[in-house]
Amino acid sequence: MYADVTVVGVGADGWSGLAPMGRAALERARVVLGGRRHLDLLPAGLPATRVGWPTPLLPALPGLLAEYADQSLCVLASGDPMWYGVGAHVAALVGPDRLRVVAHPSAISLACARLGWPVEAVTVVSAVGRDLDRVRRELAPGRRLLVLSADAATPATLARTLTDAGYGPSQLTLLESLGATHERRLDVTAEDWGHPPGDALNVVAATVRPAGGTRSLSTVPGLPDDAYEHDGALTKREARALALSRLAPLPGELLWDVGAGSGSVGIEWMRAEPTCRTIAVEARPDRAKNIQVNAAKLGVPDLRVVLGTAPQSLADLPTPDAVFVGGGIVADGLLDTCWAALTVGGRLVAHAVTIEGEHELARFAHRHGGDLTRLALERAAPLGGFTGWQPARTLVQWAVTRT
Question: What is the rounded distance in angstroms from the CA atom of residue 368 to the CA atom of residue 355?
């Protein structure tokens, strides 16, 4: 059983900026846990034993809290401990009844105060322990971003990422050591960034502006086909939008994208809701590489790629909330395995473009129910000196929810 724990948020202004409640908790504490930078901000006369965080922190946190469970314990965190901070992890371990949080203004609040931006109108992207390519999902003209930097190199990396994505004219504001006496601000466009690394404690604000000719991409499913690197193994735009409407991503859900090809369905599943996850299963190494390239380029670098043949490679994967089968429909046992993996409420969508695949989907629809839809699409194309309709390959979709 854990004893009561107080988590105290600390800013760059250190002890002088703490609320009276935070100071009192630290003065009463027998043990203070925190990062070395935070511990060094405490006054020398504070009687508590100071214990620095081990690396990696999260696996060691339960043991640390248990070790000092019988003592008056404080935990130090940056700014608001419940905003991308250690406070949420401590709360999950000790429970809300034994937790007290003394918050300090977060870097987000301080940055918005300096910029005159309303906090509710800002999109926050954390680069701390995360791939900065995640910012690509958020790129839209006029959007205001705040990027929580991992270190002093993050601002330059962000500038390169924006420029590579076609958003070099974006206005960047670097805010270092917010709240400290040596706070510093620097304003420059992403494409003109040429500054050496400064303070590791920094936030970068960006007003997103595309370069001429840059096409901004919506998070609504159905991106243009040419947004993807592919060798033809691509669920086409209209079919992709139809599939995602039936897969119906909800916050935190996991999708298996089986026979993923270029990864388009799994990528747009994650773009539709930032907390969604995808495991893309693909048998060909060249296509698996395309999936990784596409995922990074389209702002969902956390998509996981499993190189292997289905259904064998599905055996040890975590339970999905939804499954999309875009290839290999007639593989022995594939649809049975995917169906068996779903729990109640899970969705399965499968596409077929061959007669054999259609028969397989019809057989499963007869057994499990759901909807069969046949999609026949025609696009206008040149026909001699005129324009005619050119039909695409007919596609059959089976969509079903496990009840």
Answer: 20
What is the set of domains in the chain, with CATH numbers?
5-104 (3.40.1010.10), 108-207 (3.30.950.10), 225-401 (3.40.50.150)
- The Cα 1–Cα 141 span in angstroms is 51
- Locate 175 and state its tokens: 């805010």
| pLDDT tens digits, 232-246 | 889 999 999 999 999
CA distances to 22, 25, 108, 195 from 179, rounded to whole Å, are 17, 22, 12, 22
> Under a CB-based contact definition with an 8 Å cutoff, are residues 279 and 269 in contact?
no
pLDDT at 1 over 60: no
pLDDT tens column, 362-374: 999 999 999 999 9
Half-sphere exposure of residue 360: CA atoms within 13 angstroms, side-chain side:
20
Nearest in space to 195 (alpha carbons), one of 184, 210, 180: 184
pLDDT band at residue 109, thresholds of 50, 70 and 90? very high
Helices 237-247 and 264-272: crossing angle, nearest 10°? 50
The 3-class secondary structure across the chain, one letter per residue, is: CCCCEEEEEECCCHHHHCCHHHHHHHHHCCEEEECHHHHCCCCCCCCCEEEECCCCHHHHHHHHHHHCCCCCEEEEEECCCCCCCCHHHHHHHHCHHHEEEECCCCHHHHHHHHHCCCHHHCEEEECCCCCHHHHHHHCCCCCEEEEECCCCCHHHHHHHHHHHCCCCCCEEEEEECCCCCCCEEEEEEHHHCCCCCCCCCEEEEEECCCCCCCCCCCCCCCCCHHHCCCCCCCCCHHHHHHHHHHHCCCCCCEEEEECCCCCHHHHHHHHHCCCCEEEEEECCHHHHHHHHHHHHHCCCCCCEEEECCCCHHHCCCCCCCEEEECCCCCCCCHHHHHHHHCCCCCEEEEEECCHHHHHHHHHHHHHHCCEEEEECCEEEEEECCEEEEEECCCEEEEEEECC
What's the average model confidence in pLDDT over 310-336?
94
**pTM score:** 0.91
